[in-house]
Structure formats: C-alpha cells, structure tokens
C-alpha cells in the first residue's frame, strides 16, 4: 500500500465521504521495467501443454512495487528463447541444449509491459522480454593457442 493510500485509510472515519473516482486498479503504467523472477512453477495450460507460470517483480517506480504473472507455454519456442535471452541465460542466434529452468528463480532482466482490457477491466500483461545487447551478440569462437613444439617443453635450450 502506498503512503498516499495509507494516509487515506488513516483519515477515513465512519462518517467520512468517498472520492468520486477512487481507482483500486493498481497496475503499473505501460513501459519498460527491470524485473526479477520471484516465483516459478511448472504446470499445464488449459489445452494440456507444458507451461511455466512465472511471477515477476518489477523494479520499484515512485515507491510502487508491482508483481505481474506471466505464462510461457513451451510450444511457444520464440517466447522461451526471448525469456532466456532477456535473463542472459541464452545467447541470441545460438542453440540451447537444455532450457535452464533451474536458474530462473532470482534471475533478472528487462520487460515491456502493456495494458489490455478483459471483461471491461484493465490489467497489465508482459508484451515482450527485452534482450540485452550482451545477450544479442553471439559469442565469438575461442581462439586456439598456437601449437607447442616438443622443444618448447624442454628445460634447456637445444
């Protein structure tokens, strides 16, 4: 609860009036945020597909602390890749042998939040996970060390 909301609650009395347009729809403004994964559960979608249920906490803005749920269905390979790239657990353009779900808890990245209307109510949704520049650049192949000659290992000069 924000300080302003606490103040309103503390000032209310049995005979107090109410604001005409009090809004309890506490959702973050649309935009980009840093986030951390604070909950992760392996589950199934309504259609029976394997799915990750995530709760992410957005970085504080103006003292607000928002939590957003997101669902990643494993059949959406593009979203899985985007998610792991945003967490720097996958390099863009490189294959991933195994999705590192064990490294998701506490991991952080950036996300774009948008608003949608459902059943006449506005809510926020993850629009996309933002891939950092470091995750976008494929790693260069490691340079091989020059091959040693047999005489390089001798303890004396030949």
Write structural notes for this entry.
The longest helix is centred in the middle third of the chain and has 10 residues, at 77-86. A 5-stranded antiparallel β-sheet has the order 3-2-1-4-5. The mean pLDDT is 81. It contains 3 helices and 5 strands, in the order H-E-E-E-H-E-E-H. The relative contact order is 0.17. It has helices spanning 3-11, 77-86, 133-136, and strands at 31-44, 50-58, 67-73, 108-118, 121-130. Strand 4 (108-118) and strand 5 form a beta hairpin. It is elongated, with a radius of gyration of 25 Å. With 158 residues, it is α+β, with helices and mostly antiparallel strands. The protein has a domain at 27-133: OB fold (Dihydrolipoamide Acetyltransferase, E2P) (Beta Barrel), CATH 2.40.50.
Salient structural properties:
158 residues, OB fold (Dihydrolipoamide Acetyltransferase, E2P), five-stranded antiparallel beta sheet, 3 helices, elongated
């Amino acid at each position: 609860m924000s300080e302003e909301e606490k103040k309103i609650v503390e000032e209310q009395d049995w005979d107090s009036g109410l604001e005409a347009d009090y809004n309890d729809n506490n959702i973050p403004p649309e935009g980009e945020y840093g986030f951390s994964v604070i909950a992760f559960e392996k589950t199934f979608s309504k259609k029976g597909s394997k799915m990750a249920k995530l709760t992410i906490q957005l970085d504080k803005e103006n003292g607000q602390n928002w939590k957003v749920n997101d669902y990643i269905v494993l059949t959406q390979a593009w979203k899985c890749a985007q998610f792991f790239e945003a967490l720097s657990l996958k390099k863009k353009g490189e294959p991933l042998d195994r999705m590192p779900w064990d490294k998701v808890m506490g991991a952080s990245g950036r996300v774009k939040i948008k608003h949608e209307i459902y059943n006449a109510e506005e809510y926020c949704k993850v629009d996309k996970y933002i891939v950092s520049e470091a995750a976008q650049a494929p790693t260069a192949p490691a340079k091989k060390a020059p091959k040693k000659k047999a005489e390089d290992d001798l303890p004396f000069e030949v």
